[in-house]
Amino acid sequence: MIFYICLDIFNNHLNPPIMITRVFIFITFLSFPFFVSSQTNDDCGTTIAEQSSTYDFVQKQRSQTFVKTRTAAADVPVKIHIIGASNGALAIDSSDVFDELAIVNDLYSAANIHFVQCGLINYIYDNDYVTFVKNADEGLCDINDNPTALNIYFVPNLIKIVNGVEDDLCGYAYNFDIKNRLLMDKGCATNGSTLAHELGHSFSLLHTHSTSNGYEHANGTNCSIAGDLLCDTPADPKLSNSTVNTSCEYTGAELDNQQNPYLPDTENIMSYSRKSCRIHFSPKQLLQMEDFYLVEGGFLECDPEATPTNNLSEADPIEVYPNPSDATIFIKNVPSGVNLELIDLQGKRIWETQVEDATSIFEIALFQNLARGIYFVKIKNGNSISTQKVVRM
Fold it and tell me: What are phi and psi of 187, to 5 degrees?
């Protein structure tokens, strides 16, 4: 049924010679892990594991006797990585990314934080990452991250797998002092609030419904030691579309453990309220993000050459095959002067060589001696770089 509908669309809009090619491409897409770009799952995948430095930072800041001030906004460099299929399909439009960054910069202006692009966009076209699995696929990020910028990866489909069960994610992020990286699902990346939400995590903010420090009382009596540790964000029972209506009114009736009703802020960026309702940070959230940058952000300075873009010539594409393989692997169409590396899932380089003369086929015999698992072939040609995931069976 799906094939029939697509064929009918092609017949109405495409000439027959093109139609044959496009149908083949569509069938190829069906071999990818299935995804829905406009997913309805509202989950943020950021947990206390990615934000383990927040509590200590907040306590340390509270013990300070002086107040930090800054009169001008700080430019925070962001390295943009856009992942798509091997033929470039499914990737987010870069103009949509920049439109969303403009919204983010408006929201962060009161924290004296301004995000600026660092270098060219890094395009990563690889069918293996059309569906990106939280943690499991971050080896790709390890070898593409710009070490002096905040790295933002936009992927067609972002999921997590827990006990064998897959769940869609809108995004997740690390405190940037732990890892200067965040991941965004394409379907959630342009809704006006999710990117700002994940960046809030990068700058140490917890969810307003966080329970990692205990449950916050609805009357706020333990607000400084429980919940998100901030007293100008009301206790939050974990909002959702089912408890916040389209007028951004809280409709839930949940009581806290003292039997008091919640009065949450349905417009806070760090909540799970409706995406369209989330429009502001609290004053103390803004101050915490600014302080976090002042204390931890000294290494954030754009070095555009740190991560070259994936722009190797497409005239004779370099191909790694067979993949997966239980023996040796080969690289097709290797030009002269290319540097080849084999990297494991932890980002450790386990083999490297320089190819002096161009060759149509280059063999990596070492591959058959490796343990089963996922590896990366990194191909560097001057200032251009390509990375391909390979599986040792």
Answer: -70, -20
